[in-house]
Amino acid sequence: MDLLLRQLDARSAWDETLLQLPGPHLLQSWEWGAFKARHGWAPTRYLWQERGSGTQRAAASVLTRGLGRLPLRVMYVPKGPILDYSNDAMVWRVLDDLAALAERERALFIKIDPDVEPGSAEGRHLLGSLREHGWHRSREQVQFRNTVLINLSPSEEELLMGMKSKWRYNIRLAQRKGVTVHQGTLEELPLLYEMYEETAQRRAFVIRPERYYRDAWGSFIEHDLAQAFLAEVGGKAVAMVMVYRFGPRAYYMYGASLDIHREKMPNNLLQWEAMKWAKEHGCTTYDMWGAPDEVDESDPMWGVYRFKIGFGGEFVERVGAWDYPAWESGYRLYQTVMPRLLTALRWVYRQRLPDDV
């Protein structure tokens, strides 16, 4: 197969091409790259097309950023590259081109984390190809490796019947207890952040500054690629979710709740309303965005996993993140220093939390 590798710099053409390939992902969309460009990354979008026919075979939105004042850069292809992973020759070609790109740009490494299941025939071949081409399993999983997927193709009644009985009961309980859900607006973004910040303090996880989330939420709402949902009790917002969509898939990426009225089960009703919205917009899959590395009660995400799987979802494994070290010695140093830096930052954050969290 004679392929031509070229850059594409047109939003509509990029998304249109992406949606024609197998497994298009929101994090490879034009808007995601544009969003990350406003926060320190430089996106470059590559297409692999057949010479002559012009048929598109693969795509990769590559994000690049520097490391502070150091003359060093790292590259990342979030949830990509996008291609037919059953085509062995195509996999080899794309991996080689991405590695060559990292070397040409003098990056420390380039990272990929495609949505491919390791147990599938495609996954087994991909893992073998990665190892043969000098890629290493990454210590830094930027995105969740695994997830929970819900098939939205059945009717609403069938979706409800596919849930665990307690989850159906909690949805109806929330409605009986006066929980209402409405679609959030751009004017409510400050409220969403307040709730998200309170949740982060209560659960002791690190979040970014408010301007980051206003952009991450607001710009996608403006482009009709996301929708916020707020649950209220007596006119007071008590929980929220932010759901994105791209092509046939919707993604539950952010959620927050206050520590009041939790017995009224607002989060169950929120998820149901979000699933119905996704279905109405033509999505056939609802991605719950995040699950344990291993389905085990000792995993810190076990409680989150139990909540998500109760909606009738399926636990799905991914191959996870893999790095190609374009500069081997620099990459080894980065792998040693970065985890320690992140641990130190998390420790500092926790020391600043109020005593009553």
What is the topological layout?
Layout: E1 3-7, H1 11-20, H2 30-37, E2 42-50, E3 56-67, E4 70-77, E5 82-83, H3 88-104, E6 109-112, H4 121-132, E7 136-137, E8 147-151, H5 156-162, H6 165-176, E9 179-183, H7 189-203, H8 210-222, E10 226-233, E11 236-246, E12 249-257, H9 266-280, E13 285-287, H10 302-309, E14 314-316, E15 322-325, H11 328-351
Parallel strand pairs: 4-6, 12-13
Antiparallel strand pairs: 1-2, 2-3, 3-4, 3-5, 6-15, 7-15, 8-13, 8-14, 9-10, 10-11, 11-12
Helix pairs in contact: 3-4, 6-9
Total helices: the number is 11
Order of helices and strands: EHHEEEEHEHEEHHEHHEEEHEHEEH
Quote the beta fraction.
25-35%
Mean pLDDT: 93
Unreliable segments of 5+ consecutive residues: 345-357
Number of strands: 15
Radius of gyration: 21 Å
Strand count, sense and barrel status of the largest sheet are: 8 strands, mixed
Distance between the termini: 59 Å
Structural class: alpha+beta
Shape: globular
Could you characterize what this model shows?
With 357 residues, the chain is of the alpha+beta class. Helices cover 39% and strands 25% of the residues. It has 11 helices and 15 strands. The strands form 2 sheets. Strands 1, 2, 3, 4, 5, 6, 7 and 15 form an 8-stranded mixed β-sheet that branches. Strands 9-10-11-12-13-8-14 form a 7-stranded mixed β-sheet, with helices on both faces. Helix 3 runs parallel beside helix 4 (121-132) and helix 6 (165-176) packs across helix 9 (266-280). The longest helix has 24 residues, at 328-351. The radius of gyration is 21 Å and the shape is globular. The relative contact order is 0.14.
